[in-house]
Amino acid sequence: MGEVPARLSRMLPPRTTRIALLLASFTLILGLAEIAARLTSPDSPPAPLPPQPADSDLPELKKLNQLARPNALGIHRDVLYRTNSRGIRGPETNAAAAPGILRIGIVGDSVTVGWGVAEEDAYPRQLERILNAEFANRRFEVLNFGLAGINADVAIRRLSKLDEFYRPDLLIYGFTPNDIEGPNYLNLSSPKLRARFGKENLKPVDSPSRLYARLVPMLKSIREFYWPAPGSPSAERLHNYLENPAAWKDFEAALDRLKAMGERSDRCVHVLIHTQIMYLGLLHPLSPIYEKVGEAARSRGFGVTQTLEEYRFQNERRLWVRAKDPHPNREGHAILARALADDLLALPDHCFEADRKFKGPSYTLGGTWAGTWGLK
After folding, report:
1. Is the predicted pLDDT of residue 268 greater than 60, yes or no?
2. How distant is the alpha carbon of residue 270 from its chain centre?
3. What are phi and psi of 210, to 5 degrees?
């Protein structure tokens, strides 16, 4: 065994021998890393086929106001989409929960409502199943008040209106970074520039090396964290949350209305922070936003579920609802539901008191946004 290195040392100069050994070692390390990447990160599957609707003659629901309409029934993003008489996604639900049932109301945007996934796969419904499985002597009902395309202001207005009818015992707000958009939000890039960044980020890594495909998102996350390109969506979001006091004040006003809703009947309020399923490497460029929003929520007495750690280092494309659409698929929603359930199970006992006595209206609706989304 010792003859080969001896022969090499006689045939090659000492410096060349060291370089050759270093290159051989480096090649071996890369090979082992590639094997590990293939074992731990299987190929991203093609975009999953959506569930086939039972009735192919149903109309396609394209406009967002169609999705908020009471008793809507049609196809949206290739899946069956229905609303009840109150315009929420799901079956008809009584105004009052059955005795002993703890009712949870969750409001949010397209992530909460379950953009592109079946009704039962959206995280509110998955959360309901998890909680009912965890508790043998307590039953839960989770209502999905989500609606695609709304910001924080409209989300809380929508929650307030639905709260008057359904009276949930626990309130949850699903936060997404674009929730700050409103009258004082600053668009710092042109639609053409935003489209270019979107195309770049949604383009799959074209390489036979699984290691390379795994490293690219990590390197992109570091680049976007430290040096977000001017005009990129990340830079625009960071500017509005961290350097636009007027937009942040609007966002805080929505949180204050949410706080008032909880206080009027001594209900617990929880905030679930949706992680953007992109840049799932070592550093996420939007993590400063998640931290700031979490701190603002906690300062108002809300519980907070951060989900970045659950998503970190995941193969992001395996969690997308389809190719070039980074909304979460069923598995992505399962991560949100599990993280939320774990934190809800740790809430104080008084948060799980059902059959509360409500103290009257919590918030008066108004404004053009309310009219636009059918909230009046």
Report:
1. yes
2. 15
3. -70, -35
Nearest CA to 215 among 227, 225, 205?
A: 205
Phi-psi region of 245 (alpha: psi -120 to 50; beta: other; left: phi over 0): alpha
Q: Is the pLDDT of residue 336 over 70?
A: yes
How much is the pTM? 0.83
16, containing H or E segment:
helix 14-40
Length of the chain: 376
Which pLDDT score, from 0 to 100, does residue 24 have?
67
Parallel, antiparallel or unpaired: strands 303-306 and 268-273: parallel
Q: What three-state secondary structure class fits 82?
A: strand
The answer for residues whose C-beta is within 8 angstroms of residue 249's C-beta and 6 or more apart is 184
Token pair of 309 as six digits: 């750690």
Average pLDDT over residues 174-189: 95
CB 112 within 8 A of CB 179: no
243 DSSP assignment: S
Segment 80-133, tens digit of pLDDT: 999 999 999 999 999 999 998 999 999 999 999 999 999 999 999 999 999 999
**What are the beta bridge partners of residue 104?**
142, 170
- The fold adopted by the segment(s) 64-189+226-372 is Rossmann fold (3.40.50)
Decide: helix, strand or coil at residue 266: coil
SS (H, E, C) 202-271: HCCCCCCCHHHHHHHHHHHHHHHHHCCCCCCHHHHHHHHHHCCHHHHHHHHHHHHHHHHHHHCCCCEEEE
**Inter-CA distances, 359 with 141, 262, 263, Å:** 22, 11, 10
- Measured from the Cβ of residue 13, the count of other Cβ atoms closer than 10 Å reads 9
How many whole angstroms separate alpha carbon 209 and alpha carbon 63?
41
Q: With beta carbons less than 8 A apart as the criterion, state whether 107 and 146 touch.
A: yes
Query: What pLDDT is stored for residue 359 in this prediction?
Result: 54
Contact between 109 and 146 under an 8 Å Cβ cutoff? The reply is yes
